[in-house]
Amino acid sequence: MQQALAEAEAAARRGEVPVGAVVVDAGGSVLAAAGNEVEARGDPTAHAEILALRAAAQRRGGKFLQGCRLFVTLEPCPLCAAAISLFRIDRLVFGAYDPKSGGVEHGPRVFSHPTCHYRPEVVGGVDQTAAAELLRHFFSQKRDSANSAGR
Amino acid sequence: MQQALAEAEAAARRGEVPVGAVVVDAGGSVLAAAGNEVEARGDPTAHAEILALRAAAQRRGGKFLQGCRLFVTLEPCPLCAAAISLFRIDRLVFGAYDPKSGGVEHGPRVFSHPTCHYRPEVVGGVDQTAAAELLRHFFSQKRDSANSAGR
């Protein structure tokens, strides 16, 4: 989770919403790590989880990530929760809960339906204070600069 | 929807699950069209909708597709439903309903939660017989060839 937090911090420095994700294989090796790249790519689906999952699968040379864990600093949104299931991640470990946009413990709760064909084990709230603080600081700075620009 | 069906047929010829998608702008121009490329890309998120949405946004040079419609031959899964919301598509028109894996009228019903920040207008069941027949034929051939291989 420390590496995921570092990816989130790096994303914030690039002006992206600070979320970071890391895929680790069964032996504990990091397969891929990514931060949010929505602004850089002009793609609202370029979330940290999607980029890390895709890169990890490419590195393994297969379509699936069975046996792997995904660490991400924020509760995945519905898009990322669905991707986690499609890539067949074994265990999802996330930081801060996201009541506004989360899709695991909130909103559509993507893993909780009989039509979800692959469910990871889920552990939420790991290092959540650090992850939430990064987000709080980022949006507080955004508001401050928007207020200054409005003067 | 005819063009989306043609994309689905082309996907089947490449050995992909036959689903096709087309993004059309407010003036009726086709911005992007795509078929499933899960096998070709080794990426379980390379669904027709995702590829078409991303290509359409790149063509428009922006992050969002407000004012646009997405035509897709099959009810979008939760991943694609979430992406449709994130790209801010105005109207989703889909063909066959998908009780097993759909995410719009089935399963997590992604657009039906207060945490869904952008909801398209949804029209389902358009040309559904043609879309469903393509899928039925594809999976029936798959089963036949699996049975032959097992002999």
UniProtKB/TrEMBL annotation, chains A, B:
Identify the enzyme class: hydrolase
- State the UniProt keywords alphabetically: Hydrolase, Metal-binding, tRNA processing, Zinc
Which cofactor(s) are needed, names only?
Zn(2+)
Sorted alphabetically, the Gene Ontology BP terms of this entry are: tRNA wobble adenosine to inosine editing
**EC number assigned by the record:** 3.5.4.33
Start and end residues of each CMP/dCMP-type deaminase domain = 1-105
Sequence similarity: Belongs to the cytidine and deoxycytidylate deaminase family. ADAT2 subfamily.
Q: How does it assemble?
A: Homodimer.
Question: What name does the UniProt record give this protein?
Answer: tRNA-specific adenosine deaminase
Q: Which organism is it from?
A: Acidiphilium cryptum (strain JF-5)
What taxonomic classification does the UniProt entry list for its organism?
A: Bacteria, Pseudomonadati, Pseudomonadota, Alphaproteobacteria, Acetobacterales
